[in-house]
Write a structure and sequence with these properties.
By secondary structure, the protein is α+β, with helices and mostly antiparallel strands. The protein has helices spanning 3-17, 63-69, 73-76, 82-93, 103-116, 129-137, 152-158, 170-184, 195-208, 255-279, and strands spanning 21-28, 37-44, 49-54, 97-100, 125-128, 220-223, 234-239, 242-245, 250-251. The strands form two sheets. Strands 3-2-1-4-5 form a five-stranded mixed β-sheet, sandwiched between helices. A four-stranded antiparallel β-sheet has the order 6-7-8-9, covered by helices on one side. Strand 4 (97-100), helix 5 (103-116) and strand 5 (125-128) form a beta-alpha-beta unit. Helix 1 (3-17) runs antiparallel to helix 6 (129-137). The longest helix is centred in the last third of the chain and has 25 residues, at 255-279. The protein is globular, with a radius of gyration of 21 Å. The model is unreliable at 211-262 (pLDDT under 50).
Length: 280
């Protein structure tokens, strides 16, 4: 890691935090020229949610795409279409500097989706957080001569940043992007739990209580232990009070902690109810 490039990236990140910024992420039906957005999330500087919704596409969601983000046709069957949320999108990005991890992809899919529905693509100022993080790392790509690019999950894992949710879901990714920008800027705010992350926790609680959902549809808690030698964060899916380590497909050794916690909470609630009955 080059101290010079790291210092330059930190200064740029600090300057961005003084601007009127938002963070944006999308999930799509695929990578091609005919694909479109099926989920979009936009949050503000302090993690406030400006837009977060699934979107019903024209075409069916291919299984290859669903395997990545776990969004299926069934999940978007009652969701709004792009024209339905288009004005909300315009309002959320108006007069803002939009921070996107890999902006080339999201910008292209925004243009494609607007074009598919014959609506104008708003002109927005975008900053690529992936390029900024590459500058922060300062690792030279020998093939291109430029800085090496990193996946968002690697940027988060390399720096022990704790995030909530599953990578390749829009709200989780914008929350991770926000934390990463604050981290690059050297600001402790990346340790805070924001409104958008509170929604992810709420989603987890809601999905956890819904036994009808498939295991892949349930949200994840993604963590990177401080003392871990493994660069990739551990993904833990929680079901019926048990945790499953999705990195190796096996039941997590820490899974019993979640089960014990839920059991203890249930016992405490029961004791309080019994005490209230006797008091009555």
């Amino acid at each position: 890691m080059s101290k010079k490039s790291q210092s330059e990236a930190r200064s740029m990140a600090q300057a961005l935090l003084s601007e009127n910024i938002v963070f944006l992420d999308t999930e799509t039906t695929g990578l091609g020229a005919d694909d479109e957005i099926i989920e979009i999330s936009i949050i503000g500087k302090y993690g406030e949610i400006l837009l977060d919704t699934l979107i019903k596409p024209v075409k069916s969601i291919p299984e290859s795409a669903s395997r990545i983000h776990n969004i299926t046709d069934w999940q978007v069957r009652d969701s709004p279409t792009w024209p339905d949320i288009y004005q909300n999108y315009r309002d959320a990005v108006k007069n803002k500097t939009v921070i996107i991890y890999n902006r080339r992809f999201d910008n292209r899919l925004l243009r494609q989706t607007c074009g598919k529905y014959h609506v104008a693509t708003p002109r927005i100022k975008t900053i690529c957080l992936m390029e900024l993080y590459s500058l922060y790392e300062g690792v030279i790509n020998r093939r291109t001569g430029g800085y090496k690019w990193f996946k968002l999950i690697d940027a988060i894992g390399n720096n022990n940043i704790m995030v909530i949710g599953s990578f390749h879901r829009a709200l989780s990714d914008v929350c991770a992007s926000r934390k990463l920008l604050y981290f690059i800027a050297g600001k402790d705010e990346y340790l805070d739990i924001s409104e958008s992350e509170e929604k992810l926790v709420s989603m987890f609680n809601s999905f956890h209580s819904n036994s009808e959902l498939k295991e892949d549809d349930k949200p994840l808690l993604t963590v990177k232990p401080k003392n871990s030698n493994n660069n990739e964060p551990t993904k833990i899916s929680i079901s019926n009070g048990k945790a499953y380590n999705l990195s190796n497909g096996k039941k997590s050794s820490s899974g019993s902690c979640f089960g014990v916690l839920l059991f203890v909470m249930s016992c405490v609630t029961l004791v309080i109810m019994v005490m209230n009955i006797f008091k009555g």
